[in-house]
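> call design_seq(struct)
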């Protein structure tokens, strides 16, 4: 009778894709797709009297910003190629005037769409940052130490308002579709929530 060595099981690691998006190399595509999803989903705000905002819409803001930057850079580069009349491939022929005009319009449209998406997501990031500052202000219980995070919350709220307004203005050019409305709603929600967080921080700072 011979003893056989025990069989060892191979460890298998499966990639998972969380949230909305296409499964390509994990969540690489997910963040890009999240730029263009509707912003109508809701969650309860961190403040008691704050407006409802989207839970899913606030996942992976940094990844969404990176995706918007990447797509804007590609679209902007394509616009430059169209303006200069350069071939899109190194060995290919230069495109004609009609092709350059049509593709230039398409890529310009895509470029400003990415800009609007980036600004709306940036407004969300500033809103979240203002919320963190408001939380710190509340936790300090007022006093001298509460004025610094409260001031930061007010500054972030003002910046978020400016960024959100710019995003909404750019999204006007896409207002006839769901994309433009989604960008405007996302930006305005971020602006309003940031203002709420700033007010919460100011009220907490005055208690000291």
């Amino acid at each position: 009778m011979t003893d056989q060595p025990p069989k060892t099981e191979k460890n298998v690691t499966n990639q998972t894709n969380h949230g909305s998006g296409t499964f390509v190399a994990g969540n690489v595509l997910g963040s890009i797709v999240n730029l263009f999803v509707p912003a109508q989903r809701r969650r309860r705000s961190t403040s008691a009297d704050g407006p409802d905002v989207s839970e899913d819409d606030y996942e992976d803001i940094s990844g969404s910003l990176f995706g918007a930057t990447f797509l804007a850079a590609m679209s902007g580069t394509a616009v430059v190629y169209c303006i200069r009349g350069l071939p899109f491939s190194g060995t290919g022929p230069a495109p004609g005037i009609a092709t350059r005009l049509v593709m230039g319009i398409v890529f310009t449209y895509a470029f400003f769409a990415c800009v609007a998406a980036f600004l709306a997501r940036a407004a969300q990031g500033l809103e979240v940052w203002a919320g963190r500052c408001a939380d710190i202000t509340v936790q300090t219980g007022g006093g001298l130490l509460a004025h610094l995070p409260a001031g930061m919350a007010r500054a972030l709220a003002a910046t978020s308002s400016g960024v959100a307004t710019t995003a909404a203005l750019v999204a006007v050019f896409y207002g006839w579709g769901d994309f433009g409305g989604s960008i405007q709603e996302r930006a305005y929600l971020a602006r309003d929530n940031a203002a709420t967080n700033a007010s919460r921080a100011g009220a907490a700072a005055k208690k000291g």
